Task: inverse folding
C-alpha cells in the first residue's frame, strides 16, 4: 500500500498578521507616490478645478509646463544667470556620475590595499574608518565651506569630485569583506607568472569585485542624484535638479505655485532612478554585508 | 635546510628577488594610497583644524578678515543655551525624534528584514516597495509629502468628518501639527536602506545552523532571537552607536521643508547650525564652528559609552 503523504504547510497567524501590516505599509507608500504622479498628470486648469482629489481627466500639460518654466536664476561673477531645467538635469547627471565614481573608486582602492597588504598603516586606516564611522567627529559645515574656498575647490564640479574622493563610510567595510573573501592564491599565482602588483589589481581583483563595485556605485549614484544640500553649499552657481526643485517648491511665481507643475518636476527628477532600478535591481540587492566590529 | 645548503650566489639571488618584490609592493602601496590619504589630510583633518581655528575667531566686515577673539564664541554659545528657550526646545525635538527612531524604526526594520529573509509571501514585492522613498529621492518625496500633508489630508478629513483637521491651513502650516507631521514623514519613509543592509546580512546566516534549530523545534521568533540577532548584532551596534548622537546633529530635513523659516518650536540643533551657516553667511562661521565643537565634545563620550555598552551587553554568535 502506497501512502502518499501530503505535507500541509501551515502559515502561522503571526506571519499572516505581519504580512497584513507590511501590505498596509507598502500600499501607503504606493498611495503617496501614486497620488503624486496622478496630480502631476493633471493640467494646471484641471488642478484648479478638481484640486487634490482624484480625477480621470489626465494630461501631460503640467510636465511640459514644468520643462518650460522650471528655471532658477543664480549669481555668477555679479551677473544674473538663468539655469533651465535641462541645465539642471545636465548638472545633476555630471555631479551624480562623477561623485559616485570618485567615492566608489577611492573606497575600493583603500579597502583593497588595507586587506591585501598587511602593513601596520593598513591597520591604522581600518581602525580610523571604524572610529570615524562610529564617532561623530566632524568639522562644521561652515569650516568645510571656508576650507573649500581656501583650497580652490569651491564653486566647481571638479572641486566637488575631489572632495568626494574619500574612503570613509560603511561601504569600505563592505569592500573589505569582499576582498577578504578572495583567496590570496590568486595573487600568488599571478606573481609567479610575472604579473606586477598593479596588473594583479587591475586584471584580477577589480574584475572579481565588479558586482560589488556596480552595486556600491549605484547606491552612491542614487544618493547623489537627490542630494541638494552639497551643491547648494559648495556649488551654488551650478544648481542640480534637487536644488532647483527645492527652490521651485518655495517659489511664489504663478506657474511654479501650482502644485501639479511642481510635482511634475519631482516626477521628471525621479524617472531616471526608476529606470535604473528596473534595469539593475537584482544587482543592487547584492552582498551588502560586513564583518564584526570589535575593539 | 636544503635552501641553506645552496651556493651563496643562489641565496643572494633569492634574497635579492624577495626584497625586490617587497620593495615593489611597498612602492605600489604608497602610490595607491597617496592620493586618498592626501585627500583625507586636506579635507577631513583640514576641515577639523579649520573648525578649531574659526571657533576662536570673529569676522570683521569692514576688512573682510577674521581676527582672534579667544573664547568669545564659546561664551556666546553658553549664553544662547542658558538663555534661549528655543535651544532647549531644539534639544527636546532632537531627543524625541531619536527616541521614536530607536523605538519604532529600528525594531520594525529588523522585523521587516526578517520577513524578507524568510522569503514569506510577497517578500520580493515588499523589498522593492520599501525602497521606493530612496528611489524617489529626498527632495521629490518631500515635495509630494508637503502637498499631501498641506492639501490632501485636510481635504480628505473635511470630506469624511465635515470638520477641519487643523484650525487653519494644512498640517505644515498649523504650528502644533508641524513637528509630528515631519517626524511621521521620517518614520514612514526610513526603512529602505536599513532593510537593504539587514536582509543582506541575514542571508549570510549559516543555513545549517538554522536547519538544526528547526529540527530542534525552534520557532521563528526563537530563530530570530537566538540565531539571527546575534549574527546581526555587529551591524546593529554600528548603527546604534553612530546614531546615538543624532539628536544633536539631525536637522530632520527641515531645510527642505521650510528653507530658513522653520517655526521656532520645531527646530533642532542641527537645523539651527544649518540655518546660521546658510542664512548668516561667513560672519556666522565662527559661531557655528564653536557650536559644532561643543556638540562634538558632548557626542563623542556619549558614543563611546554606547559602544562600550553594546560590547558588554550585546549578544554574541558564540
Result:
Amino acid at each position: 500500500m502506497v501512502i502518499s503523504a501530503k505535507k500541509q504547510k501551515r502559515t502561522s497567524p503571526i506571519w499572516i498578521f505581519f504580512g497584513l501590516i507590511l501590505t498596509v505599509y507598502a500600499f501607503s507608500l504606493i498611495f503617496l507616490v501614486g497620488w503624486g504622479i496622478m496630480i502631476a498628470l493633471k493640467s494646471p486648469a484641471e488642478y484648479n478645478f478638481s484640486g487634490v482629489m482624484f480625477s480621470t481627466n489626465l494630461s501631460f500639460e503640467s510636465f511640459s509646463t514644468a520643462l518650460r518654466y522650471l528655471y532658477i536664476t543664480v549669481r555668477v561673477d555679479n551677473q544674473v544667470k538663468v539655469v533651465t531645467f535641462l541645465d539642471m538635469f545636465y548638472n545633476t547627471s555630471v555631479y551624480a556620475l562623477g561623485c559616485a565614481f570618485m567615492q566608489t573608486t577611492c573606497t575600493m582602492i583603500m579597502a583593497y590595499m588595507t586587506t591585501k597588504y598587511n602593513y601596520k598603516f593598513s591597520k591604522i586606516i581600518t581602525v580610523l574608518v571604524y572610529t570615524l564611522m562610529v564617532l561623530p567627529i566632524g568639522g562644521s559645515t561652515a569650516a568645510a565651506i571656508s576650507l573649500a574656498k581656501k583650497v580652490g575647490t569651491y564653486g566647481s564640479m571638479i572641486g566637488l569630485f575631489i572632495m568626494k574622493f574619500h574612503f570613509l563610510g560603511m561601504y569600505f567595510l563592505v569592500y573589505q569583506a569582499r576582498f577578504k573573501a578572495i583567496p590570496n592564491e590568486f595573487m600568488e599565482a599571478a606573481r609567479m607568472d610575472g604579473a606586477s602588483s598593479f596588473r594583479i589589481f587591475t586584471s584580477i581583483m577589480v574584475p572579481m569585485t565588479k558586482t560589488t563595485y556596480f552595486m556600491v556605485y549605484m547606491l552612491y549614484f542614487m544618493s547623489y542624484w537627490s542630494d541638494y544640500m552639497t551643491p547648494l553649499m559648495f556649488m551654488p552657481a551650478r544648481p542640480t535638479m534637487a536644488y532647483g526643485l527645492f527652490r521651485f517648491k518655495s517659489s511664489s511665481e504663478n506657474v511654479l505655485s501650482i502644485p501639479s507643475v511642481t510635482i511634475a518636476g519631482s516626477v521628471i527628477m525621479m524617472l531616471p532612478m526608476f529606470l535604473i532600478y528596473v534595469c539593475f535591481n537584482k544587482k543592487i540587492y547584492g552582498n551588502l554585508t560586513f564583518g564584526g566590529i570589535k575593539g | 635546510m636544503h635552501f641553506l645548503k645552496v651556493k651563496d650566489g643562489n641565496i643572494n639571488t633569492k634574497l635579492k628577488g624577495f626584497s625586490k618584490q617587497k620593495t615593489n609592493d611597498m612602492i605600489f602601496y604608497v602610490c595607491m594610497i597617496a592620493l586618498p590619504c592626501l585627500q583625507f589630510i586636506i579635507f577631513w583633518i583640514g576641515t577639523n583644524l579649520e573648525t578649531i581655528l574659526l571657533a576662536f575667531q570673529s569676522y570683521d566686515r569692514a576688512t573682510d578678515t577674521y581676527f582672534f577673539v579667544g573664547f568669545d564664541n564659546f561664551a556666546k554659545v553658553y549664553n544662547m543655551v542658558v538663555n534661549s528657550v528655543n535651544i532647549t526646545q531644539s534639544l527636546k525635538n532632537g531627543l524625541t525624534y531619536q527616541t521614536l527612531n530607536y523605538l519604532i524604526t529600528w525594531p520594525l526594520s529588523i522585523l521587516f528584514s526578517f520577513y524578507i529573509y524568510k522569503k514569506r509571501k510577497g517578500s520580493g514585492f515588499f523589498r522593492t516597495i520599501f525602497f521606493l522613498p530612496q528611489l524617489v529621492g529626498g527632495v521629490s518625496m518631500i515635495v509630494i509629502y508637503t502637498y499631501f500633508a498641506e492639501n490632501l489630508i485636510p481635504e480628505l478629513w473635511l470630506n469624511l468628518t465635515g470638520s477641519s483637521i487643523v484650525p487653519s491651513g494644512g498640517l505644515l502650516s498649523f504650528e502644533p501639527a508641524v513637528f509630528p507631521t515631519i517626524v511621521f514623514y521620517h518614520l514612514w519613509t526610513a526603512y529602505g536602506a536599513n532593510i537593504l543592509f539587514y536582509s543582506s546580512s541575514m542571508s549570510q546566516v549559516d543555513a545549517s545552523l538554522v536547519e538544526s534549530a528547526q529540527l530542534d523545534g525552534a520557532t521563528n521568533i526563537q530563530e530570530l532571537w537566538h540565531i539571527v540577532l546575534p549574527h546581526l548584532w555587529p551591524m546593529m551596534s554600528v548603527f546604534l552607536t553612530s546614531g546615538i548622537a543624532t539628536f544633536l546633529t539631525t536637522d530632520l530635513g527641515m531645510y527642505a521643508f521650510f528653507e530658513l523659516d522653520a517655526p521656532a518650536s520645531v527646530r533642532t540643533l542641527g537645523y539651527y547650525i544649518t540655518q546660521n551657516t546658510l542664512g548668516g553667511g561667513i560672519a556666522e562661521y565662527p559661531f557655528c564652528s564653536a557650536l559644532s565643537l561643543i556638540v562634538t565634545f558632548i557626542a563623542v563620550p556619549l558614543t563611546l559609552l554606547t559602544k562600550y555598552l553594546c560590547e558588554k551587553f550585546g549578544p554574541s554568535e558564540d
Chain B has two domains: 2-55, 85-313.
